[in-house]
Amino acid sequence: MQTLYLGCLALGVIFAVVSVLVGDLIGSALHGIFDFISFDFLNPAVLAGAVTVFGGAGILLTRYSGLEDGAVLALSLLIAAFMAVVLYLAVIKPMDKSEMSTGFSMNDLPGKIGEITVPVPAAGYGEIMVKFGAGNSLHTAASFEHQPLPAGIKVVVVDVRDGVALVSEFEERKGADM
Question: Which of 98, 82, 10, 2 is nearest to 46 (CA)?
Fold first, then answer.
């Protein structure tokens, strides 16, 4: 049994080292292969963590407790299952939800509300700041209606032409005005 525990511990450590060194290469090569598995807790990090904990718990229980092999095996499996659940709930699941890209397309701009940061003259260019996800992005802007727009006012992006956001002053209407 000691060989089984040592092998599981070594396998887990080797998996962790290989994941750190070439994880991105393996991840891009295998991207989507395991998508047919619909169980989120079968994540490779959870499984590798469970195998490693199983091996480590088995070695420690064998050496430092007076339990028989069957009890050590059962307790090691319980500890590994518990730690896999903890790893999944404390690390994997929150990280899966936290992925947010700050990338955007200029085609996403029309309809977005922004703020003038550099005044936009009637026949020229200024700058707007538009919030995308967790960040802000600055864009060259021109007046859609060829009206000067001062800094600090809210605008709506009407269109994008040649990488320039065409904006108009944002009018917030309420209640009876509609």
Answer: 82
Long-range pairs, 137-141, Cβ under 8 A, ≥24: 137/102, 137/104, 139/109, 139/114, 139/164, 139/165, 140/164, 140/165, 141/114, 141/116, 141/165, 141/166, 141/167
DSSP label of 90: I
Q: Which of 154, 119, 157, 125 is nearest to 141 (CA)?
A: 125
**Per-residue pLDDT reduced to its tens digit, 59-100:** 999 999 989 999 999 999 999 999 999 988 888 777 766 655
Tokens 């499984």, located at residue: 47
Strands, E, within 5-133: which ranges? 113-118, 126-132
Beta bridge partners of 114: 130, 155
**Running DSSP on this structure, what letter comes out for residue 25?**
H
Q: How do residues 89-119 score in pLDDT, each as one tens digit?
A: 888 777 766 655 656 678 888 989 999 999 9
Give the pTM.
0.52
